[in-house]
Amino acid sequence: MGDKNQNQIFKAMEKPGFYPHEIRRIEIRETHISKVFLTGEYVYKVKKPLDLGFLDFSTLEKRHFYCDREISLNRRLTHDIYLDVVAITLNNGDYGLGKEGQTVEYAVRMRQLPDSSSLQQMIKARKINKAEMVELGRKLAQFYLQAPESEDLQAGEAWQNVSDACKENFRQTKSFCNTLLDRETWETIQGATISFLTGHRSHFIDRFNAGKFRDCHGDLRTGHVYFTDQGIQIIDCIEFNDRLRHIDVISDLAFLLMDLDFHGEQDLGDCLLNEFLGQTDDTKAVLIMAFYKCYRAFVRCKVNCIFLASNDLQSKEKEKVQRHALKYFDLSYQYALQFSRPRIWVICGMPATGKSTIAKALAQILEIEPIRSDLVRKKIFGLKPHERGGALFNEKIYSSPAGSLTYGKLLCLAQQEIENGSSVILDATFSRAKHRDDLLLLAKHKGIKPVFIECTAKEETIKERLLKRESTPSVSDARLDHFEGFKTRYEPFAFGEDALHIMVDTTLPLDKCMRQILIRTFRKENKDQA
To answer: How far apart are the first and last CA of the chain?
Structure first.
């Protein structure tokens, strides 16, 4: 069916008499691939006769097939919303819905959800809360855990699909440079993306082999999530192209998290992500999240650019689309800076606050070896790891000059890793402000915002841990007798915006501590201080 004939159907659908039920008003919405008629109780969605390469609705048979697919796939995340596929018929020149006559088109019939219950509108109305985001995180986690793995894909093919999609984005937006998009920023995003894809190919393959590529939603946005009396309803998944839906679950989730960032709701996104990670035990997903957010933001930038160029818009609408394109472009740039730069992680705090436990757990996630001050200090002075360096913490290898020498060596080792393009974890008390300031100078010189993770615990817990060291081998020489001296000399932390300071109560479960650290670190921006 051509556009001309379908336009006649659309004109018929604009009239209340077309429908076999009472109509109060008809609202029409249109995308580039479908036309939607909202009638109050029901919604009717008709696919346009298009062949765009990535989708093919060119024949009636194909549109019927994809209508059925839309129903079955969307029922995974909805309840009693996607009802059926109805035939549009022609009889003696009159079009009807499900009547006798020749079938000339098909429509997906859905129950109409109120716009006010969508996550997008609830954010605008300030009616969404963190508890509802936790519920959404739990629902999505269970959906991904139960979704079929992408068995038709090979590991290399999964990576190639991601790579091809990213490269296509840059090909399709290059013409907008120097007119709408800043070329230098565009080149930075492109360079960071291609470099990440090339340097982390094994990471994508590892995730595929771990079963993280599944049959997802594909278009998970705030406008597609509804909070209703019947529970959370998530509509409009991608039905027309399996490749766009068989993706890493984190790519799917990143779309929604990016959309929340776009609306300035990072705290809501953090709640959702924390619950998701807790349910799935997929903590390493955070390491690739910024990359997928960058990709998703760039896709939305591209869509707005193309829409702007291909439509004759009124000035107000044109300004809105342009503003959105540039905002997505800026988001993409911020994410690109996140995943393209090495990081300095400083695990610090009083002795026996759990620094080495946190450092070891972080090292396993980041796959880098932590640099521990206790080992560096003893190596400088020719001692073995478990050999005691002195009974007092103000003499021998723990004198002030020895401390300066040790922290100087820590900075040299950190600088070497950063200059090699690698992130680094430093495990040390950093009790003196001077040592922190020295590290801040190094980080600033390298254009890095360091993350200071200050481990804390109640005094009785610290003392119990120190007492345990009397009978258990420990690389650290700190003992219960040293506690009061450490407490007196420990200088409080005070940072501006040059560093991120995260305080972690290490008496909490380790997985909860790690989620707190990673989510806070990988936020879009980190101006808040603990």
So the answer is: 61
Residue count of the chain? 530
Confidence (pLDDT) at 297: 97
- What pLDDT score does 274 carry? 96
Structural tokens at position 303? 């869509």
Domain with CATH 3.40.50.300 in the chain: 344-521
Integer Cα distance of 513 and 447 in angstroms: 27
Q: Hey, how many other C-beta atoms are within 10 angstroms of the C-beta on 275?
A: 21
What is the chain's mean pLDDT, rounded? 91
Cα radius of gyration rounded to whole Å, the chain: 28
pLDDT over 50 at 527, yes or no: no
Supply 435's token pair: 């040592």
What confidence tens digit (pLDDT) does each residue in 297-325 have?
999 999 899 888 877 778 888 899 999 99
Tokens at 267, concatenated: 């705290």
In the chain, CATH 3.30.200 sits at 3-112
What residues pair up with 47 in beta bridges, in sequence order? 34
Lookup: tokens for 220? 């998970």
Could you tell me which CATH class the domain 119-340 is placed in?
Answer: alpha beta
Question: Using CA atoms, how far apart are residues 306 and 324, in angstroms rounded to an integer?
Answer: 12
State pTM to two decimals: 0.90
Q: What is the pLDDT of residues 421-472, one digit of tens each?
A: 999 999 999 999 999 999 999 999 999 999 999 999 999 998 888 888 877 7
Percent of the chain clearing pLDDT 90 (strictly above): 75
Domain 3-112: give its CATH architecture: 2-Layer Sandwich (3.30)
CATH 3.40.50.300: does it fit domain 344-521? yes
Q: Which tokens in the block code for residue 266?
A: 């990072």
Beta strands in 75-117 (DSSP E): 82-91, 94-97, 102-111
The CB-side HSE value for 304 (13 A sphere, CA atoms) comes to 21
DSSP-assigned states of every residue in 359-426:
HHHHHHHHT---EEHHHHHHHHTT--TTS---SSTTSGGGSHHHHHHHHHHHHHHHHHHHHTT--EEE
